[in-house]
Amino acid sequence: MKISFTLNSNATKVDVPPKTTLLKILRNEMGLTGTKAGCEIGSCGACTVIINGEKKKSCIFPADKLEGCDVTTIEGVSAPDNKPNDLQESFLEHGATQCGYCLPGMIMAGEVLLAKNATPSRPEIKEAIADNLCRCIGYIQIVDAIEATAEKRAKGKGAA
Ligand code: FES
Ligand code: FES
Question: How far is residue 10 from each of residues 15, 26, 31, 119, 154, measured CA to CA in Å?
Answer without folding.
Answer: 16, 14, 15, 30, 28
